[in-house]
Amino acid sequence: xxxxxxxxxxxxxxxxxxxxxxxxxxxxxxxxxxxxxxxxxxxxxxxxxxxxxxxxxxxxxxxxxxxxxxxxxxxxxxxxxxxxxxxxxxxxxxxxxxxxxxxxxxxxxxxxxxxxxxxxxxxxxxxxxxxxxxxxxxxxxxxxxxx
Length: 147
Known about the structure:
Blueprint: H1 2-18, H2 26-47, H3 50-72, H4 77-84, H5 90-101, H6 105-146
Membrane topology: Multi-pass membrane protein
Keywords: Cell inner membrane, Cell membrane, Membrane, Transmembrane, Transmembrane helix
Protein name: Threonine/serine exporter family protein
């Protein structure tokens, strides 16, 4: 489990170089991917569902991204995009194409639906965390103004 989290850390660092993100943020993006993958592993252990695990992992990535964006005064996307790289269902997408080539269409359909569901869960997790974070921030700001 620790080995997977370390690999997720590095898997989130390498896209930073690709996307030309400020080098001072490399460590923080690595932590984003590692925390997201650790959340995925914990949730997967209890649910055995890649969809709910991916949702939880991406939600945590989104919250971490919003917090670090405020702290480091940078867009949250600089953390969330590299942070979700370990969660992207690459092997299931590969298996889908592989089953299509082998003409095993029922297995291809099954893996294809899983790929789409995981991708949707990742998108929904990021969206929900960003929306929730902004909603809570506005509530706190309005309470400050009311006082």
